[in-house]
Amino acid sequence: MIGIAPDKFNRFVLAARYIESLCQNGLNRPRILDLGSNENLLTYFLNGYPVIQADIVASPSALNFIKCSAESIPFPDNSIDIVVCLDVLEHVHASKRNRILDEIIRITAHSTILAFPIAHSNNTTIELLFSELWERLYQAPNEFLMEHRKYGLVNPSGVIEHLKKSFQHNRLFFTFPWQFWLLSNLVERYLGMLSKTEAIKESLNQLFNTVPVRSLDITEAYRAFIIAGHKQYPPIDEQWFYGKMSSDEELTSSNIVEPIISAQTALEQLNVYARDLENKLKKTTCELEKANHQNERFKQELKQYGQTLSADYDALEKYALHLENTILNKDNMIVDLQEQLTNLLTERKNRKFKE
Fold first, then answer.
1. For 293-342, how does the pLDDT look when each residue is reduced to its tens digit (9 = 90+)?
2. CA distance 282 to 284
3. Which has fewest Cβ within 10 Å: 14, 94, 127, 293?
4. Could you give the C-alpha distances from 133 to 4, 5, 139, 192, 295, in angstroms and in order?
């Protein structure tokens, strides 16, 4: 699984590590719900722990799946030990997010794990850049990022403040540098334009997924992780989590500041990279148009040649018919001559008999 896309790896490996730590610290045979996922990835990362998957859309590979909306989860109160909800909130309207959080709180017996892209200017900028590149390459919008723009990325302080009303323990940390998100997606899209690159993509993903990541603050990270619950969670080494964790102290919007790191230089370089990709795409398009033009010309030549062959065939067919008629006429002449000869011989024989 280490060869999967870094963005997915980051989400699921952290969630799986925390679940395993809970199990190692006394939570036996937990009932786990993966809300908003239908890819079985959490099951793979947990290496055998059963996971219930819930989403509004099922996939052919979905196992132990329940179709439902995150706003109305069909489980009783306090019936799920661990509720996992990764990169879901940014795909629903901001007015519905607290309703989803309330449903998660209602069914959670022990802990919930949330993750989502953070609402700050660096993330908004890189997503917009990547969306524009995607549309240039595929002549269609990226549906996931289009929903990010439509509904907005998530403010972690608002989520924490809502969870603290119900959960005694809440922990927030920031992970996955926004540069990693952009670079890994650009590499994947660029390699996707080439043939026979699966082994290269997997190797690069492994490289991304095994690079040690330093502790991040909110201005450096693409994603926020929140661990919340009714019961005290075990201590977790922050390097093990690849992230910088907050304490249980109240986190409000006043201490989540706007990014102080400008992405301008990086984005200028990436714009150059995007223009280079666009030029290569235009060149490839021109070559394809030229090939199509040559193909059309070749088809016309084949058509003309076929028409010539057809005319020649018609002429040959007429000539064959003429030969056939000629032979038939000659056969008739031979038959007539044979009859005349037979008549002459008969007549001569009769004369001799009379004499």
1. 888 888 888 888 888 888 888 888 888 888 888 888 877 888 778 887 88
2. 5
3. 293
4. 22, 19, 10, 13, 30
Query: Encoding tokens for residue 326?
Result: 């000629």
* Tokens at 170, concatenated: 């809440």
Domains in the chain: boundaries:
6-121+137-257
The closest of 221, 110, 121, 104 to 159, measured between CA atoms, is 104
* 241: its two tokens: 């989590």
H/E run at residue 334: helix 264-354
59: Cβ contacts below 8 Å, ≥ 6 apart: 38, 39
* DSSP category for residue 69: B
DSSP 3-state of 314: helix
- CATH code of 6-121+137-257, in short, is 3.40.50.150
Taking only the tens place, the pLDDT of each residue in 212-256 is 555 578 888 999 999 999 877 655 544 444 434 444 433 333 333
Contact by Cβ (8 Å): 65, 54? yes
Question: Phi/psi at 14 (nearest 5 deg)?
Answer: -70, -45
User: Residue-wise over 298-319: b if at least 16 C-beta within 10 A, else e?
Assistant: eeeeeeeeeeeeeeeeeeeeee
Q: What's the CA gap between 259 and 123, in Å, rounded? A: 10
Taking the model in full, what pTM does it have? 0.68
What the block records as the tokens of 13 is: 């490996």
CA gap 214, 241 in Å, rounded: 10
Strands 65-67 and 51-55: parallel
DSSP at 8? H
